[in-house]
């Protein structure tokens, strides 16, 4: 007899497992399981009762073990188990499910030919992408991360040769962006409008490159580009439009950062014949910004804690959208309040500590005023003493969580303006997070491979965020607590996954992904081969 586990998927995507007591019987020459008793849902089974039943069976039929010695014998057997390997599996398991759902392997295979793209190379390529998404700041190369840290489905080990071959194959497959084009429609069906952004990146060998990214308003990446650092700004959007409009007719809107704050900068963008979305500086005394903010109007809710209102000014071709992020407003207010309390405490401490040494007091206050972030809150009084500028604090409080966006597109909605700008800024942050650990240490000839790996990682991350409603950092942190543990003992070797908490289970359920099985491998009578204990 044995415990038999079955599962079914509910209409909401939740996976429910059931336990039954069963035994095998022979029917027409074949072995079939016969259920003796249904024990119910796995999460509602009386595990303690089953353990007592097993102990009772051991006491009555164990032979050599005297009555009352079963608990001690069980403890002794448990003590003989040795943990030989522990690896994180939660996030790699989720990414692998999304990888298969989007048919990334099939897209690469179609672009390269089945004979070149073996199963081993497909797994190595996925491992490179998963490493960028899960552990970009770990400091470990991808091959070592696979060997020592992570449980990658279908891949037990990887070396530098696997890495080199997988990267070369990906670059060759995407020469004409065939891989990206086949995946862009798999990730989303809403490709109008598309938002385009660029970022300059420096390699360790001094070579400068420009990375371009086109995303949907939900932030799903559609296409990336890689140009030499000297590529002209006017030529880049034209090439992007030509590449995109051949396959995705619609609007391509260039997004620029807050460095473009003046009317001359915005007019320069329009001379290229492209529409733009430009962030504008809020606190630099710009008269255009002051005029926009002084106009009254009601905010409209966009999503979560983001709301917007549109402003039009006489004599201006651009439309202006004031965005108010309530979460960011709370963050800004908390940071400012903490900074002011810290400054007031420091000024009191300096005054008390150097009451009799004016020169020491002046040096300490000068050091405080030179602080790169705290110094802006200080003003000097006529007598030379420093004071917290509360008037400035009150003025900036009116801007908490707000940013101003200008656009030349007369048709795009204010909501799409806000979402497109926000998602590309978040993607820019992910560029800084996902790229430097891999690309900055290598010469320019490998940069395109790393950019494509980053693009694939960003695609999986955005799909996970969009489906779960949670940021990737939260998903990665929660699923990073799910581990795969390999134990060995006299009876053999078993690999088991740690139980899911409610947060981890909710993430898998939101993405309709079945979590890793509790017992993933069992090898009676031999020790595990993965072989690194912690």
List its salient traits.
534 residues, alpha+beta, 44% helix, nine-stranded mixed sheet, IS1634 family transposase, 18 strands
Question: Can you describe this structure?
Answer:
This is IS1634 family transposase. The model is unreliable at 63-79, 437-441 and 526-534 (pLDDT under 50). Strands 7-6-5-8-9-15-12-11-10 form a nine-stranded mixed beta sheet, sandwiched between helices. Strand 1 and strand 2 form a beta hairpin. The chain is 44% helix and 23% strand. It is of the alpha+beta class and 534 residues long. It is built from 19 helices and 18 strands. The longest helix has 28 residues, at 326-353. Helix 4 runs antiparallel to helix 8 and helix 5 packs across helix 6. The protein starts with a strand and ends in a 10-residue tail after the last strand.
What is the element layout, followed by pairings?
Elements lengths: L1 E8 L5 E13 L2 E12 L5 H15 L8 H10 L2 E7 L1 H12 L2 H9 L6 H16 L7 H7 L11 H14 L4 H10 L6 E9 L5 E8 L5 E8 L6 H11 L6 E5 L6 H9 L4 E5 L6 H8 L5 E4 L2 E6 L7 E7 H28 L4 H12 L8 E3 L5 E3 L1 H8 L4 E6 L6 H21 L1 H4 L7 H22 L3 H8 L3 E7 L2 E6 L4 H9 L8 E6 L10
Parallel strand pairs: 5-8, 8-9
Antiparallel strand pairs: 1-2, 2-3, 4-16, 5-6, 6-7, 9-15, 10-11, 11-12, 12-15, 13-14, 16-17, 17-18
Helix pairs in contact: 3-5, 4-7, 4-8, 5-6, 5-7, 5-17, 7-17, 12-13
């Amino acid at each position: 007899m044995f415990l038999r586990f079955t599962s079914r998927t509910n209409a909401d995507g939740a996976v429910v497992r059931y336990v039954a007591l069963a035994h095998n019987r022979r029917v027409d020459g074949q072995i079939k399981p016969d259920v003796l008793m249904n024990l119910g849902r796995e999460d509602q089974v009386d595990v303690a009762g089953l353990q007592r039943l097993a102990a009772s069976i051991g006491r009555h039929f164990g032979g050599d073990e005297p009555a009352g010695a079963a608990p001690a014998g069980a403890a002794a057997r448990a003590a003989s188990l040795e943990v030989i390997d522990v690896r994180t599996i939660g996030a790699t398991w989720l990414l692998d499910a999304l990888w298969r759902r989007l048919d990334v392997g099939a897209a690469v295979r179609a672009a390269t030919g089945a004979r070149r793209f073996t199963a081993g190379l497909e797994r190595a390529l996925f491992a490179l992408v998963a490493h960028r998404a899960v552990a970009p700041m770990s400091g470990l190369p991808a091959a070592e991360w696979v060997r020592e840290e992570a449980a990658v489905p279908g891949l037990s080990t990887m070396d530098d040769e696997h890495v080199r071959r997988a990267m070369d194959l990906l670059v060759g497959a995407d020469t004409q962006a065939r891989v990206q084009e086949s995946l862009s429609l798999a990730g989303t069906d809403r490709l109008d409008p598309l938002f385009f952004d660029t970022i300059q990146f420096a390699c360790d060998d001094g070579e400068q490159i420009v990375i371009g990214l086109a995303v949907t308003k939900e932030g799903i990446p559609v296409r990336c580009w890689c140009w030499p650092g000297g590529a002209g700004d006017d030529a880049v959007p034209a090439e992007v439009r030509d590449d995109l409009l051949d396959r995705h007719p619609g609007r391509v809107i260039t997004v620029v950062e807050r460095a473009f704050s003046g009317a001359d900068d915005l007019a320069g963008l329009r001379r290229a014949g492209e529409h733009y979305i430009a962030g504008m500086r809020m606190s630099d005394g710009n008269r255009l910004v002051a005029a926009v903010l002084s106009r009254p109007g009601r905010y409209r809710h966009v999503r979560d804690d983001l709301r917007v209102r549109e402003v039009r000014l006489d004599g201006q071709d651009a439309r202006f959208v004031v965005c108010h992020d309530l979460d960011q407003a709370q963050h800004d207010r908390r940071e400012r309040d903490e900074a002011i309390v810290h400054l007031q405490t420091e000024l009191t401490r300096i005054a008390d500590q150097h009451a009799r040494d004016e020169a020491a007091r002046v040096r300490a206050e000068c050091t405080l005023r030179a602080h790169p972030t705290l110094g802006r809150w200080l003003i000097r009084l006529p007598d030379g003493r420093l004071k917290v500028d509360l008037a400035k604090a009150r003025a900036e409080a009116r801007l908490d969580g707000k940013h101003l966006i200008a656009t030349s597109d007369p048709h795009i909605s204010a909501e799409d303006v806000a979402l497109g700008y926000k998602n590309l800024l978040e993607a820019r942050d992910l560029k800084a997070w996902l790229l430097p650990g891999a690309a900055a240490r290598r010469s320019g000839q490998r940069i395109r491979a790393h950019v494509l790996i980053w693009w694939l990682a960003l695609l999986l991350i955005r799909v996970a965020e969009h489906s779960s409603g949670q940021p990737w950092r939260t998903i990665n942190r929660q699923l990073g607590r799910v581990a795969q543990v390999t134990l060995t003992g006299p009876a053999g070797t078993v690999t088991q996954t740690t139980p899911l908490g409610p947060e981890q289970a909710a993430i898998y359920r939101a993405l309709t992904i079945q979590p890793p099985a509790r017992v993933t491998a069992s090898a009676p009578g031999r020790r595990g081969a993965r072989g690194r204990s912690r």
